[in-house]
């Protein structure tokens, strides 16, 4: 049987229940597939049921177990009800992946108070709502693991100041909750900060931005963008027993781009415009193994073309 090709051993999450918010598209969809392939009963939740049902069908065709629930993370009462429903139906909640969120591009000078508040409410307050609901509904008494998807904010996020402020707040909240909830409640909580990842989220970008991204993908120390699978693998690791001594950490999955952002003009010459020497990890089944014809990444065509190039990294002839 074809399946999502996780890098990890079989069934580390067997008999566990893990909630993934925003699990119907993009990185959240990939996380749901990976966790299901590793034995978890995955509950995916979002505001729209149609994408969730599509992902549920994909996971079930690949032999996994998946449940769906409607959820608006900005609604604290709804967050509480979803956690209660999961525990009532499945008997437990071992893991929570806070993936739901969103933003739009805007220079700070053109950003309205309403626009700023909306993004902060969705990302920062929504993440708090889910963490608190998980604590009150199960994890406060039984323990658990939480991983939140944030963004790489070390040197700010120009043209997205609102989400940078919100995500930085989540990173700090993660550290605080690790201190407060770790010793007496047995909860580990960490965050993952992706850099530029080839994902369906890029379809929301203006064509001018897509063109820019397609031509500048090499401008980081790894000389390429990341894949959804590389983010989902980091999440799986932090949820797994291998990360049992990791608490309150923000793991940057960005190819080292945070080390170079904001450098003076000309520093891009440190990078390799001829292409990456670092093989990409892609977990989606391919070729004859993809008997169920599971769709891979639904990014803009120019960006998807980069993935084809990344798949061939490592097959080049030696320069030695």
From TrEMBL:
Subcellular location: Peroxisome
Catalyzed reactions: (2E)-octenoyl-CoA + NADPH + H(+) = octanoyl-CoA + NADP(+); a (2E)-enoyl-CoA + NADPH + H(+) = a 2,3-saturated acyl-CoA + NADP(+); (2E)-hexenoyl-CoA + NADPH + H(+) = hexanoyl-CoA + NADP(+); (2E)-tetradecenoyl-CoA + NADPH + H(+) = tetradecanoyl-CoA + NADP(+)
Gene Ontology BP term (one): fatty acid biosynthetic process
Enzyme nomenclature, EC number: 1.3.1.38
Lineage top rank: taxon: Eukaryota
Top class in the EC scheme: oxidoreductase
Keyword annotations: Fatty acid biosynthesis, Fatty acid metabolism, Lipid biosynthesis, Lipid metabolism, NADP, Oxidoreductase, Peroxisome, Phosphoprotein
This protein's pathway: Lipid metabolism
An MF annotation (GO) of this entry: trans-2-enoyl-CoA reductase (NADPH) activity
Gene Ontology cellular component list: peroxisome
Gene3D superfamilies to which the protein is assigned, alphabetical: NAD(P)-binding Rossmann-like Domain (3.40.50.720)
Function: Participates in chain elongation of fatty acids. Catalyzes the reduction of trans-2-enoyl-CoAs of varying chain lengths from 6:1 to 16:1, having maximum activity with 10:1 CoA. Has no 2,4-dienoyl-CoA reductase activity.
Subunit structure: Interacts with PEX5, probably required to target it into peroxisomes.
Protein name: Peroxisomal trans-2-enoyl-CoA reductase
């Amino acid at each position: 049987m074809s399946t999502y090709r996780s890098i990890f051993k079989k069934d580390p999450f067997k008999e566990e229940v893990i909630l993934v918010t925003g699990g119907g598209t993009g990185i959240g969809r990939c996380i749901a597939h990976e966790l299901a392939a590793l034995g978890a009963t995955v509950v995916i939740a979002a505001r729209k049921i149609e994408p969730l049902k599509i992902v549920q069908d994909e996971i079930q065709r690949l032999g996994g177990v998946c449940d769906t629930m409607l959820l608006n993370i900005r609604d604290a009462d709804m967050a509480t009800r979803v956690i209660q429903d999961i525990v009532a139906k499945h008997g437990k909640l071992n893991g929570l992946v806070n993936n739901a969120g969103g933003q739009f591009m805007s220079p700070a000078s053109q950003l309205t108070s309403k626009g700023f508040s909306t993004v902060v409410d969705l990302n920062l307050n929504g993440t708090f709502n889910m963490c608190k609901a998980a604590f009150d509904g199960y994890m406060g008494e039984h323990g658990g693991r939480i991983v939140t998807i944030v963004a790489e904010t070390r040197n700010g996020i120009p043209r997205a100041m609102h989400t940078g402020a919100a995500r930085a707040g989540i990173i700090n909240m993660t550290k605080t909750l690790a201190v407060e909830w770790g010793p007496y409640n047995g909860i580990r909580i960490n965050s993952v900060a992706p850099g530029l990842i080839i994902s369906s989220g890029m379809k929301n970008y203006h064509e001018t931005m897509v063109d820019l991204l397609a031509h500048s993908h090499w401008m980081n120390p790894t000389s390429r963008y990341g894949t959804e699978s590389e983010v989902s693998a980091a999440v799986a690791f932090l949820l797994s027993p291998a990360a049992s001594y990791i608490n309150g950490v923000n793991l940057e999955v960005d190819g080292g781009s945070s080390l170079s952002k904001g450098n003076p003009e000309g520093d891009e010459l440190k990078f390799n415009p001829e292409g990456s020497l670092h093989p990409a990890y892609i977990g989606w089944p391919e070729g004859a193994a993809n008997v169920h014809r599971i769709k891979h990444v639904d990014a803009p065509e120019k960006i998807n073309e980069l993935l084809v190039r990344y798949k061939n990294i490592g097959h080049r002839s030696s320069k030695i």
